[in-house]
Design goal:
By secondary structure, the chain is mainly alpha-helical. The chain folds into two domains: 1-211, Alpha-lytic protease prodomain-like, CATH 1.20.1510; 217-292, Cation efflux protein, cytoplasmic domain (Alpha-Beta Plaits). It is built from eight helices and three strands; from the N terminus they run H-H-H-H-H-H-H-E-E-H-E. It has helices at residues 2-31, 35-61, 75-107, 117-144, 147-175, 183-210, 217-228, 262-280, and strands spanning 234-244, 247-256, 285-292. A three-stranded mixed beta sheet has the order 1-2-3, covered by helices on one side. The two termini are 44 Å apart. 42% of the residues are buried.
């Protein structure tokens, strides 16, 4: 429960920053005649929506296991990360499309409105605030081992980077003259492409975990080495692993002397479980099957 409270606190801080920025960006984008800033404001709006997703799903994932969820509710946190990836991807595609339409109009001879300094100041403020929230969120995500919080941290970082691109485009359009007003939508397209990359990474990881993707090879090798380090245990094999939200699920078979008492074999298996839980956390789901050699 304490973990969930910390996640709520971090998410609420990020949400407060997002509300301030999205309002300021929309005003600055409209009054400052900047397509890139309006796109950036939409991105901040998606940040706020994902903050809500994190708050809802982390609360659900923190529930203990029950009759209908023998493995707990950890997958809801992975689902939150996946939904954040979807939200990012939708926003990014919209940003790229809008920018391409404006670039096409400029190439057809249409004169684009030049943004003004209000839009530039909004972009610079966004860079500073969102990078600060990213660093804070990522530190807490690592400490709390939260997939959803880490995904949301990357959402903050993508907003900071998009604001850098926005600032460059707006600054170029302002200071290089009306011939270069196309830099504003060009910046929005570049930002959109970057966000698509971040979104696809989140989706790949989230969908992989939801589809019972195994843990990385290096983690599985470490599990086998730890099991084999227990005296009397030989040839750990048939290892099956997956993620349950922010926890691991580990199932494996081990060989022992077939002549030892059942109670001794049970104690050795329990020793393997205790060693793995000590290494990967008390909430790790572990199942050890003993076979005679």
């Amino acid at each position: 429960m304490e973990r969930n409270k910390e996640i709520y606190k971090v998410t609420l801080i990020g949400g407060a920053v997002n509300i301030v920025l999205l309002l300021f960006k929309f005003v600055a984008g409209i009054m400052g005649h900047s397509a890139a800033m309006v796109a950036d404001a939409v991105h901040s709006l998606s940040d706020f929506v994902t903050d809500i997703i994190v708050l809802v799903f982390v609360r659900i994932s923190g529930k203990p296991k029950d009759k209908s969820h023998d493995y707990g509710h950890g997958k809801y946190e992975t689902l939150a990360m996946t939904l954040i990836g979807v939200a990012l991807l939708v926003v990014a595609i919209g940003i790229v499309y809008s920018g391409m339409v404006k670039i096409g109009a400029w190439m057809g001879g249409q004169q684009l409105d030049a943004p003004d300094m209000l839009a530039l100041w909004a972009a610079l403020l966004s860079v500073v605030l969102k990078e600060a929230v990213y660093r804070y969120s990522m530190i807490e995500a690592k400490l709390l081992n939260s997939q959803a919080l880490e995904a949301n941290a990357w959402h903050h970082r993508s907003d900071a980077l998009s604001s850098i691109g926005t600032a460059v485009g707006i600054g170029g359009a302002i200071f290089l003259g009306r011939r270069w007003t196309v830099l504003d939508p060009v910046a929005s397209v570049i930002v959109g492409l970057f966000i698509i990359k971040v979104a696809t990474d989140l989706l790949r990881n989230g969908i992989g975990d939801l589809m019972e993707q195994s843990l990385p090879d290096e983690v599985e090798q470490e599990i086998l080495q730890l099991a084999a380090s227990v005296p009397g245990v030989a040839e750990p094999h048939d290892l099956c692993t997956r993620r349950l939200g922010n926890h691991y699920a580990i199932e494996l078979h081990i060989l022992m002397d077939g002549d030892i008492p059942l109670s001794e074999a049970h104690d050795k298996a329990s020793e393997v479980e205790a060693l793995l839980r000590q290494h990967y956390g008390e909430s790790t789901h572990i199942s050890v099957h003993v076979e005679p050699k």
